[in-house]
Design goal:
Number of helices: 2
Shape: rod-shaped
Radius of gyration: 20 Å
Structural class: mainly alpha
Order of helices and strands: HH
Largest sheet: none
């Protein structure tokens, strides 16, 4: 389940983009562009959240590696 959560922000952005492209080709209304523009900050928030979690996990792993190296010396 953890691997799916890493891809959910990208999937959300892709679906939002596909909906905007499809709606823009079917209709000449500005509504799809407005929805796409308003949805983009959420994409950036989701991507930032995943990146921050990954960075925290990397920092923790690096701390553990340093701790293990210091024990072996």
């Amino acid at each position: 389940m953890k691997t799916i959560t890493h891809f959910s922000p990208a999937l959300y952005c892709a679906v939002l983009s596909l909906i905007a492209v499809y709606a823009n080709t079917v209709s000449s209304s500005p509504i799809p562009r407005i929805i796409f523009t308003l949805g983009m900050p959420i994409c950036f928030l989701f991507m930032g959240t995943v990146t921050a979690r990954q960075q925290a996990a990397i920092q923790e792993l690096m701390r553990q590696v340093d701790e293990l190296r210091s024990r072996n010396l």
